[in-house]
Each structure stands twice: as C-alpha cells, then as structure tokens.
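Q: Fold this one first, please.
A: Sequence and structure below.
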Amino acid sequence: MSEPVRVGIVGTSWWADMMYLPSLQSHPRAETVAICGRNRERGEEMAQKYAIPHVFTDYRELIEKGGVQALVVATPDDLHYPVTMAALDAGLHVLGEKPMALNAGHAREMCERAETVGVKHMIHFTSRWIPEYRYLKRLVDEGYLGRCFHGQFHHLAGYGLGGNYQWKWDPRRGLGILGDLGTHRIDLARWYCGEIASVSASLAAFVERPDSDGGIADSANDSALLTLQFVSGAQGSIQVSAVAHMADRLMEQRVTLHGEEGTLELVLYLGGGGELRGARSDAEQLEVLPIPDDFLVGVDPCSPPLEQWTQVFTRQAAGSRAFIDAILEDRPAAPDFRDGLKAQEVIDAAIEADRRGCWVKI
C-alpha cells in the first residue's frame, strides 16, 4: 500500500488515550480518521486532542460513514463481539482488546469470520512487546531451559480494593480479573510453554461491589488461581488479583520457568524495579541477565516503567504500530484472533472448573 491506512477507533477510555491513539499517531503511515464513544463530548475532546476529523456515538455509523479501512475495538468486554463482527462484515481489518469476547463461542465466530473475509486481525496482548518478556522468549526459544517442566505466572495489583462499580466487575459486561489480567498470563503461558491441555481453577470475589444502579450485586471474580497441565506434560500455575495491596510496588508481574537445563525468573514492578535472572543447571546461583540493547531501541531506561512501556508502543513495531505494518506489508499480524481464541478457551474452562470443582480439558 502506498497510501496511509485510514483507522477508526471505538472507545474513548483512558486506555485508548494512553495506549492506542498515541501509538497510531506515532506511525508515519497511519491516519486516525474517526472515533466513536457513547459520550459525544468526550469523543470530541479526544478528536480535538488527536486531530481526528470525524466523531460518532454509534459504531455502526462509524463503520458505514467513517471512511476507514481498519478498526480498533477498545471497548468493554461485552461489546467486543458485536463491534468486531460488524467491522468484519464490512471487510475491515480489526485490532481487538483482550479478552477477545465474553465466551469462546463468540471468539470462535470472530476468528472464523476474520479468516473467511481475509483481513488482518490482531488481539492486543501487550506483554508480548515488553522488552523483558521478549528477551525471555528469545532465551526460551534458544534452549536456555531445555525441556520445560513447569511455569508460574503471577500478576498482582490492588486497583479493585475500592469496591466501586466498574464494568469489569459486572458479570453482564466483563469477566473480572480473569479476563482483565488473567488473559495476559494465559497468553504468556502458551507463548513460553506451549498449548494448555487442561485446567483447574479457584475464582473469588472478595470485595462487595454495587451494580450499575447502586444496589448490591453479584460481582465477577477479583482474584483467580489456576493450575495448568500443558500438552507437553509441563505443569503450570497462574495467579492474578486486583485486591492485593502492593504499596510502592503498585503492581507486580512475575514469571518463573524451570526446565531440565535451567531456570529463568522475571519480576517487574510498575512502581519501579525488577529484573530478569537465570541459572543453567550447573550454576550455583541465579545471575542477573541484562536486557540486550536491540530490545530497548527508542526506550529511555532511566524513565519510570510505565513511561518506558509507552515508549515501546510509540517507538517500536509494537501493538497498534505492528498492526498497521501487517496491513501495509500484507502479512499476518501476531498475536492474532487464533491466539485470542486459545486464551478464551482457557478462560471458559477455568470458569467451568471453578463451578464444578474439577479439572476441565481444553
């Protein structure tokens, strides 16, 4: 393609403002031409900030009249399926948020429709582009671990302690912490350890929350603990929580991988700090493994972690920028809807496993 890719975005949240729009704006051959949000005033505010010419309050109207070739779906979970299907029916390339849908049935429909239409499709699993996770992937692929025996994947935060209403805790609209943070850990587990064969799970809703009308309602999970059996025979666990007080750490992400040839451990704190450490089978202690410079192009290592990650998505071939590149170069995008579907199948199995109190095969 010689012309810029004309992109529309559905969603005007802080996340769209922090992640998607700066990333799209930073790409020299992407042109964000339309934005849609239920609040026109907010949409116009975002349009003015990013010089977006067209504002809509109905995604169907954006798809029909916005003059777009590609659509970013940055909405609450319950809207991923209808918005994406409408975009695919119009022949648009689609970049979707995680989790892909509210259930694997809808995710499968989305995936099959995208493949039938023949457009580029991507799910925004942000961790795959973070330098530390990418370098960890290189080490795994180069055989640092040998055959993997087990992997542990943790992501702990405290943003759910307040007990206020948010759509992600509303089971009619979201999948709780399992969908919010758990889907990232599931994707990383697959990325590092291969396909997941079965899962057991314990899901909890520790904090009482109001519904959208102010009354007390059933809440989606705010803490989840999963045990995994991989197709390879490896074992794994995932723990995610939005009700863990992290103090100055703000948020903790941890991946530990053990194999026949060695161990790798990555710890990241949103408040600052963390490192990647490893030891081969003959080593007496774990050593720090510095991230190579080629993973840090355009990133200021002295800036806070969140700012560093923002730099990744506006200066490297990451996220929205990678999606645009896939369209321009006519090549598959990754991670794609198949990856989103695989994660969704594990989420569905975890929900069933928690309900039945048993292992569930994927």
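Q: Good. Now the second chain.
A: Here it is, same layout.
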Amino acid sequence: MVAWFVQKNANATIMQSFICLAVVGIVWVLWGYSLAFGNDVGGFVGDLGFFGLRNVGFDEAFPGTAIPHLLFMAFQMMFAVITPALITGAFAGRMKFCSFIVFVVAWVTIVYAPLAHWVWGGGWIATELQAIDFAGGTVVHINAGIAAVAAALIIGKRRITSLSGGPHNVPFVVLGAALLWFGWFGFNAGSALSSGGSAVNAFVTTNSAAAMAALTWVGLSWFHTGKASVVGAAVGAVAGLVAITPAAGFVGLWPASDGFLNAFPALIIGAVSSVLGFYTIRLLSKFRSFDDTLDVFAVHGVGGMWGAFATGIFAVAAVGGTAGLIEGAGGQLWRQLVAILATVGWSFVMTSVILLAIKYTMGLVVTEEAEEEGLDLAEHGETAYIA
C-alpha cells in the first residue's frame, strides 16, 4: 500500500466499511437474518419466516440460548456487517461506489446468509457434517478471504504502478488494530451466548493467540529485515485473532492430556497463523498480476483456514464438548477440512458470479482518470486531508 495512493483514497476506503453498517443493517433486518436463521429448507438456507423481523421478539429466547431472540439477531448482525467490509481491502481505490453498494446487497443475500445457515442456522455443515466453528472461521474469515481473491482477480490490479512507500499513517494502523483486538473479545467470547465458563475460556484463548501472533510476526520481521516492524505487530495480532476465532470456545490453554504438542494450543494457533500469513504475503508479492491491496487473503483467508483446521486438531471435549485429533478423534479433522473446502468453493464461485454480473451490466472499475485523481474526489467529492 503506497502512501500517495492511500492518501487519495482514505475517505473512499473508510466509506466502504462504514456504509456496510447501513446497507447490511437494512438487508439483515429485512431478509438476511431470516435466510440465515429461519426454518431450515433442505439444509441449505432458512425460510422467510423472520422476514422484516416477524416473529423475532424480545420476550422469548432464541432456541438453545437464554438470551432474547431479538438480541441474538442483533449480535449476528455484527458478523454480517463485518464480513463484506473485510473484502473491501482487496480492491481499495478501484471499485465504483454504486457498484459496491449493489455488490454488498447481493453478496450478503446470496453468499453470506446461506453459509451462515449451513454453519450456525441448522444447515448441513452443522447437522450432517458436524463440523464446528465457534465464532466465524468459515462464515466470516475464510468466506471474506476467498471472496477477496475473486474480487482481486476480476477487478484487476491497480493501474498506477510506479509508486513506492508504505502506509500513510502508521499510528492509525496500530490504533485500528488495538480497537480490533479489544472488540474481538465481544466477537469471540460473545459467541458463547452466555457469561459462563465458555465465554471466559474464549476470552483468554483469544487474547493469548493474538499476543503470540503479534510477537511472532515481529520476530519474523526482525529476522528478515533487522527491524521490528510496527505495522507487522498490528497485522500479526489480527492474524492471531482470525485464526483463534473458530477454535476459541473449543480449545483451552491446557488440554486434558499431557505432551509438548498438547501444551498451549491457543499459543500454537497464534504463532502458526503469523508464520503462514507472513510468508503468504511474501509469496503473493511475486505475482504482480494479483493485487490484494490489504492482504485480505493472507490474513483472513489463510488464517481462517488454519484456524478451522486447527480446531479439528486441538478441540477438547471437556472445553467445548467436541474432541479433536489431540484426543484421538481424527474424524473431526476431516469434518473440518470438508467444511473449509465447501466454504472456499461456495465463496469463490458465487462471489465471482456476482462480480461478473455487475461488471457486464453497470461496470465494476473506476476510470483510469478517477484512479489517478483518487476516489476521495472522484467518487465522494471530499478530501481526507487539508494541506
């Protein structure tokens, strides 16, 4: 990410994430929640029984929980909002804003809601396959990471290639990562849907994985460059948060059995996520035709896949009710792998269909002149900074 490029697209990049709150906030309460959590239709999607929040009240609890149904809907809306916002990092500075709005509506409806139903709403991944995902490794992170790959390939690389530099505001990068780290406690611990031991365990494993991942990324940076990267620490923390998300409520700091490989699974998950993310970014940098601007695939896609797979390794029955490979249940590992592959296939194919449909109707990419000028002015008519 080059400083000049970011400065002229700061508003546009922020707006893409911010507008997801508005767009998905409407889609979710009208039909998105119903498609994800309505009565099961063939293990694939929910019905429209909750359309417009019909039959979603605050007096009765959501089935299987002790919290009001309306509160559960609002909590799930958080996941629905953040997931398309993650994808935007793959095409920063290139996509038309009007096309982005259409993309978000279509993507949440066609890609996100059915996948959420498969995993959390009583669909086939949860009931037939019996794969597990505590807080969104498949639904959120693999889904967004693979959608980012489709977007980067279809939208294409930035046409302004003669620039060099780094992030234009490193303190803001660190501040954003710190806010994410703090907010992730609600993301993961909140997925216990209670304030008991499961939530506490998810809280601690989340922090442990993020801390280990941040230190690992800094160490890798130090090893390769002789410098402890500030941005690397922030990116590493996010990689660790991503990877622990599907496992947070199924693994503990100390599993039931002994042995070196069994110790501190949250720390192992965090460390490996940084190693995988760090070297994926270095590898993809060699492919000049692939322009995932903010490394969404490396951090969220790869991190999510590792986290979902690691859940099948380190899950402990005494913690989350499901045993993994570490307790001799090798079948869980294969179930996790099938869920990963299903998520990858669904997200890539359906995201590609949506983007190609938009491309050949209303167009996806801004003009070269708009890209040169920067989308802050070209699309929004406002600059982020006053000279």
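Q: Anything worth noting on the second one?
A: The chain has a mean pLDDT of 92.
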